[in-house]
Amino acid sequence: MLPLSYYLVLSAVLFACGVTGFLIKRNIITIFMSIELMLNGVNLSFVAFAAKWHQLSGHVFVFFVMVVAAAEAAVGLAIIIALFRTRETLNIDQVNLLKL
Amino acid sequence: MTRNLHLWLIPLLPLAGAAINGLLGKRFSRTVVATVANVFCGAAFVMSVWVAAKFSSLPTLPYVETVASWLRSGNFSIDYSFSLDQLSLVMLLVVSGVGFLIHIYSIGYMWEEGGYYRFFSYLNLFMFFMLTLVLASNYLLMFVGWEGVGLASYLLIGFFFLRDSAAAAGKKAFIVNRIGDCGFLIALFLIIQRFGTLDFERVFDAVKPYAAETSGVGFLTAIAILLMVGAAGKSAQIPLYVWLPDAMEGPTPVSALIHAATMVTAGVYMVARSHVIFERAPSALMVVAIIGALTAFFAATIGIAQTDIKKVLAYSTISQLGYMFLACGVAAFSAGIFHLMTHAFFKGLLFLAAGSVIHAVGGEQDMRKMGGLRKEIPVTFWTMTIATFAIAGIPPLAGFFSKDEILWRAYQASWAYWLVGLATAFITSFYMFRLWFMTFFGEYRGAAGASHGHEEHAGHGTHPGRDESLARTGAPPPHSQHAHGHGGIHESPWVMLGPLVVLAVLSFVGGWIGIPGSLGGGNHFDKFLGPVFRATTPAVNAEHAQAGESAPPEQTTEGTEPQTEHSTEIMFTGISVAAGLLGLFLAWLLYHRRPELPGRIAASAHALYIAVANKYWIDEVYAAIFVKPLIGISGFVFWRGIDQGVIDATLDGSADGARELSDNLRHMQSGNVRSYAGWVAIGATAVIAYMVWVGTR
Amino acid sequence: MLHLVLFSVFALVCIAGAVNLLVQRHPINSALSLVVVMGSLAAEYLLLGAEFVAAVQVIVYAGAIMVLFVFVIMLLNAGEEERTYGSRVSWLLGIPGVLAVTVIICWALLRSEQASVALGVIPGLHNTFGDAKSISQLLFHEFLLPFEVTSILVLIAIMGAVVLAARPEAVRESKREG
Q: What is the C-alpha to C-alpha distance for residues B127 and B98, in angstroms, rounded to an integer?
């Protein structure tokens, strides 16, 4: 029997790691993986609260998050492939055509 | 029975002419332009005559008609309303009549100049403003006309705008006028503050109960002096006269109309109209008289050394205006108006004839290069002779009667005024006859080839070899101030000579309506204007006020002429005629008989001559005291300091600031996804921190 | 006691994997660490009594998504990262900001009373909370609409992925044939 806060702290730490990875990594794929890490942290938080309040909606939500994350990962990686074809690079700093 | 005289039509007719010529005149032929301008001006004149004919049947005077309401603010209201009484009727006839004659003259004079339609448009515009000024029944509408004639004067002086001197002269006229207008405006503000209205009748009714401010400077004195400042600017009196000699840069009809006959007399008219105020401010009247006398003498002395024919006439105008102000200053208002009328005739004639002379000698204005013209241009010669005798005050021409009346009234106020006036009359006669002799007598001193024009005229085939050549040659390229290339001294065409003859007749007989009682006349002019100026003199002390408005016999009011003083008056008349004849004799001596004398006299009184010839360096003094410092302040303080340093700097600074800000913000849009992520993280951080802080409080 | 030990072990593994993801330079190493994270998270879910979710986590996340990641990494032959500094903002402001927020949140959570409620279930054979039957009861009754919509979303994602990742020549060929 552990306090809820332990799980939430773990979730926060995972989320922070995900954000940090997003900020410091240069490889696009690694940045995507950081996003997945963030999502996982959030999932943990959902499940923890579902256990606290004894409601299953949290689990269902996690289910949906996973499905959407899968879809997003698929589309995102497809974009990265298309990007790689034209730019020949996976360095996000070189994908800056939107600059002024 | 109330008749509607439709006074508003009189100013609006020339305005219509100005609008038509101004907007469409560029496409019209010169004949059409001239026709339009003259028809509208002539219609105004015809209507003025019609109004004069109907005048005697008007039940009440002044006749006021209100066209529309102009502005209402609380208790203060002004209407577009015109009024007619004897004074404005005289001014109306003079302005529209002389104006019409000058319009006709200009057809011929300006025929070969560029911008024909522009000239007539401006001329009609001037007529509109001047007629508005004369017919206005409140100070504000009069001020509209006042400003408008200043504007028209600026436009017409600078008519040959490609010439720097003409443009500068126009500017000078307008700016000096404006300085006077400043005084006028402050006077209007004071009137509004004290009396709450600007309508003539209401203001004068409110002023009448006041007694004369004999002790020191009171409220009415302030108003009167400020009005005089405005009049000094408009009518070229000391110290604001400097614009009038420069205004000779404009075409000669402009000089005749605006700077001799009508605009410059607006100041005199305004003072006469405000006589109710002036009569209750003796100090102001004294100021007016002193300024008038001083200006008359001062300008006359400058006139004797001028060599440009138009400049002589310009200084003569300033001097004669001084006479009119002297008359107003001694409360002889109708005498002042009388002189205004006769002056319009002979000064207008002098200018027009001078224009004819200039036209004849092909543009030359220096009298030293003229001479012996009386045989070549006889009509011009005879009309100018009449005008010269008139201005010198030789009976029985018009100027004699009007000037004499002023001198007589001046003497009754103070012998000093009379003495200055007499000296001025002598000098006036001298320099006018000097002009006469230098221009028309002796040998022709001008450019070779311009003399003996008859042989050349025969060669042209369009000029009959008579004394009075009528036709003109074809159109040479337009020159400024009428410098033609077609050689030969020739008389002007009849379109120019006609007005000269009419004005000459008027200069001859125009004074006969004011023949004073001492010489056996009925002084009809004085009696005509009497109701305007009589019955408004202030009571000197309270008992007289209760005894009604009639003045004690010692007071000189309009319309009364004690018999006992007739013999004195005749004596003074004789003295002034003698002064005029003395001037004629001196001029004959120096410029006809012994023409080497003037040079020797000038050499022996060298310093005095140089001072007079350089107009006492007044222009240079003004430039040093006022103009240059003002331009300096304008340049350094206002332009560099405020305009560039503050206003431009603020605007440029804000633009630069915006640009720098956006330049710095631009770096946020780097296209770099990681920096976007960074910003999102920061934003999220801030929001979460805030929420945590709020939650744990 | 057992709970605490299990939780701590898997939590440490989780965090170690996450940090390793940040530290590694080659993306494949990062991907493998992410798999470790997901596995340990599945254990955490089990500790919370979410059996179904734990199973789905392993199957979908670690088994499908991460495989996809690994495939793409191999396909693109992603190499080690170069050292380029694209954005100073993320370094200077982002990371400290995130760290600060995390610290604050953790501090707030650990100090809070509401979050100190003990929870946790011992997974057993007769657990009716979090098993497949109860979840599917919820899923197909109350959350039916989101379920269907999500399935359409997945369909669209499949089509989108195929289109986006296809080679241009292949697209033209299919157009000519079709």
A: 11
- Residue of chain A whose alpha carbon sits nearest to that of B663: A100
CA distance B358 to B365: 6
Q: Which residue in C93, C97, C108 is closest to B696 by CB distance? A: C108
- Per-residue confidence (pLDDT) for residue A29, from 0 to 100: 92
Average pLDDT over residues B629-652: 84
Ramachandran region of residue B371, left (φ > 0), alpha (ψ -120 to 50) or beta? Answer: left
| Residue B76 token pair | 């203060």
Mean of the pLDDT values across residues B624-642?
84
Q: Nearest Cβ partner of A1 from C90, C120, C135?
A: C120
Q: How far is CA B617 from CA B598, B602, C93, in A?
A: 22, 18, 78
A12 CB within 8 Å of a chain B CB: no
Report CA-CA distances (Å) from B342 to B80, B262, B403, B514, B575.
Answer: 31, 12, 9, 10, 21
Stretch B376-387: mean pLDDT: 88
Residues 6+ apart with CB under 8 A from B497: B356, B379, B380, B383, B491
In angstroms, the separation between the Cα of residue C106 and the nearest Cα of chain B is: 11
- How large is the ipTM? 0.90
Which residue type is seen at B277? I
Write down the pLDDT at residue B548: 34
Q: How far is C126 from chain A (nearest CA, A)?
A: 16
Nearest CA in chain A to C161: A75
Please give, one letter per residue, the 3-state secondary structure of B380-405: HHHHHHHHHHHHHCCCCCHHHHHHHH
Average pLDDT taken over every residue of chain B: 81
- Determine the distance in angstroms separating the CA of A99 from the nearest CA of chain C, rounded to an integer: 12
- B27 interfaces chain A, CB cutoff of 8 Å: no
Q: Are B410 and B422 in contact (CB under 8 A)?
A: no
Parallel, antiparallel or unpaired: strands C118-119 and A2-3: antiparallel
What amino acid is encoded at B635 in this protein? G
DSSP line for A8-59: HHHHHHHHHHHHHHHHH--BHHHHHHHHHHHHHHHHHHHHHHHHHHT-THHH
With tokens 């206003």, the residue in question is B647
Q: Which residue has the tokens 């849009």?
A: B669
Q: Residue B458 has which token pair?
A: 């025969």
Taking only the tens place, the pLDDT of each residue in B6-23 is 888 899 999 999 999 888
Place of tokens 């039957």: C133
Rounded distance between C-alpha atoms, residue B238 and residue B229, angstroms = 10
The pTM of this model reads: 0.67
Residue-level pLDDT at B619: 82
Residue C90 contacts B, CB cutoff 8 Å: yes
Interatomic CA distance for residues B695 and B548, integer angstroms = 95
What is chain B's alpha carbon radius of gyration, rounded to the nearest angstrom? 31
- Give dist(CA B378, CA B367) in Å, integer: 18
Any idea of the CA torsion for B371, B377, B379, B383, to the nearest 10 degrees?
-20
If you count them, how many residues does chain A have? Answer: 100
Tell me the average pLDDT across C29-50: 93
pLDDT in tens, C113-122: 776 766 655 5
Question: Is there a contact between C97 and B682 if contact means CB atoms under 8 Å apart?
Answer: yes
How far out from the chain centre does Cα B108 lie?
23
Task: Check residues B547 and A72 and name the one with the higher pLDDT.
Answer: A72
pLDDT tens for each residue of B274-321: 988 888 888 888 899 999 999 999 999 988 888 889 999 999 999 999
A75/C161 Cβ within 8 A = yes
Q: Is the Cα torsion angle C134, C140, C141, C143 positive or negative in sign?
A: positive
